[in-house]
Here is the input.
Amino acid sequence: MAKTFGATSTTDDVLGGVSLRAKRVLVTGASAGLGVETARALVAHGADVVGAARDLDKAKAATGAVRSAAANGGKFELAALDLASLASVRACADALIADGRPFDLVIANAGVMACPFGKTADGFETQFGTNHLGHFVLVNRIASLMKPGSRLVNLSSAGHRYSDVDLDDPNFARTPYDPWVAYGRSKTANILFAVEFDRRHKGQRIRATAVHPGGIQTELSRHLSPEMTRALLDRINAANAAAGEPAFKFKTISQGAATTVWAGAVASADDVGGRYCEDCHVAEIVLDPARRSGVKPYALNPDTAKALWAESEDMAGERF
Here is the structure.
């Protein structure tokens, strides 16, 4: 009988008794927080992990515990990747392709949240360009390395409820910029990308899913002042109360990374493929705008997913 996990489960709980020996995994954002913990848990269970990061010196300093945790054949190495530069994304993908070793799991973990308005090196709004478009190009460029039975896990967020994607104005050229709306758009895009990637590849037994790790205090919140954090928590708790849900609680980093490793290495591929997961289970579709849990139906809309794919190809100047 399959074990049941939940909001307080940790990576070690989820991977208890699981051997990942001879499995190869790519984890983006392996220089802090969830990326480091995800890599640690995987190598501790025997996986060969490639951690991609923008600042390799920072990543090397942050991942000493990852190397120390390696067991049962587990290994860890770093790769340079700046998701806010498509030149860097392409260089990373080219290096992985040239290396030629296949992946069993790709975890698109890196991201930014609620930052001031800015643009990537290629002129895209920072959150959409980094969280979605950089990963879109990277994953599609290395898709040939994903062997049958492999999975893509995109880290999304309950923040997807702040906004659907806006394919008519993805860079806020005409829309007043709001950091939370921009974050919501990018996190919805993460889910929609998983939906369409799964549709395109499940015939080759390659599946994709999106996950919400939960609220965790990591570097992701570096753009939030204490006042912004308090205002956000007040809004969340007001919404939770209105929806009859319990008060918000932060997760530990190990609890936050648990849904990622559960969806990538433990859950049934058929259960999570093309879906959105939270607290180590597949989330239900929720229409109530006050509810923070669950997934909004627009984030799983297959037509929007196809349209986003086409728009992303146009923005990147590549066809996949």
Observations:
- The chain is about 40% helix and 15% strand.
- The beta strands are 24-28, 48-53, 75-80, 103-108, 146-155, 207-212, 276-278, 281-282.
